[in-house]
Amino acid sequence: MKKGNLWRLLFLVSTLALVLTGCGDPELSALDPKGTGADMQLDLIMLSLYIMLGVMAVVIVIFTYVLIRYRQRPGDNHIPKQVEGNTKLEIIWTVIPIILLIILAVPTVYQTFVLAEDAAETTEDPVEIKVTAHQYWWEVEYPEYEIVTAQDIYIPAGERVHIELTSVDVIHSFWVPALGGKMDANPGLVNEMWLEAKQPGTYKGKCAELCGASHAKMDFKVVALERDQFEKWVADMKEPAPEPTTVSAQEGKQLFENNCMACHATDAGQKSLGPNLNGIADRKTIAGFMDNDKENLEKWITDPAARDVKPGSSGPKGMPAFHDKLTEEEISKVAEYLQTLTIE
Ligand code: HEC
Ligand SMILES: [Cu+2]
After folding, report:
1. Residues enclosing ligand 1, CB less than 6 A?
2. Which among 289, 175, 281, 295 is positioned nearest to 236, based on CA atoms?
């Protein structure tokens, strides 16, 4: 390679390294844990990092020493004594890695078992949550409270909750980096895990298994509340939504009942083909990823599978576009009605 090219390559690689390290959403980082499981995982990452740094330091020091100490000096052409099969040395460099691997393996295996514990057994009366993955949304069910919702998973902070994961179509993966854990949601199978947020807050989750066209938009939130706030949420979810007060929202409700009720329930206790829309006005996002405002609601109802919305979401079990079924004005009224579906 010519010297100029080498410099250019070096420049490119270092610039890329610099730019790409800025990639990614800080709220989706496993390096900033906010949950018990994530803490344990970060501890393991750090342990292996320290071991690797230690090994690197020792190797670099010995390497540098040998390079300098035993380099060929001008005028000295003799070939040094060749040494082979030094038992002492070979034992040393076999035993040290074995010790390092044991130091790494013991906590890793132990923590793996703790992370896989059944919260139903280790925690007294944990909140039970059934999460069902669909292309491309998350259904969330609280059997003990008879609540069905979607996308936003409410949990009490400071408690282990028990999560049962499954899928109705392809393999998805449930991942909340700040809280820990990544678990597959498989069709025909129930996987269990626990989750604990140390502090109240909203934590981002993502589908971590390529599952189709809008895999990258299959986001969700875990909303951790103090115990009493969580209980208030449960009670509020079970309250029926207030009747819309404006004429246009009332017309919107009528349009909704005629066009959308086949797939959407608005009563917290009811399962439906599509997401339960009870409390949709207070959801963190629409469809898991769009800002929750009227404009985006209209955009969603008009054509959910549009390129800049959620491609692939109008499939056989998805949501049809309504631009040829409802006028713009009607869509606006439906959106206005949806905005009255608050949690309280
Ligand atoms: C054939 C079934 C079907 C019909 C009819 C239908 N939807 Fe949907 N809807 C879905 C499915 C499935 C999703 C989830 C799509 C996704 O996110 O991939 C969805 C998602 C939504 C969402 C986002 C929910 C959330 O959790 O963020 C809203 C809002 C919505 N629909 C409103 C409507 C309205 C308003 C109508 C009537 C004008 C309607 N839908 C008609 C199936 C349907
Ligand atoms: Cu998915």
Report:
1. 136-137, 150-151, 256, 259-260, 262-264, 273-275, 280, 283, 286-287, 297, 300-301, 310, 313, 318-320, 322, 334, 338
2. 281
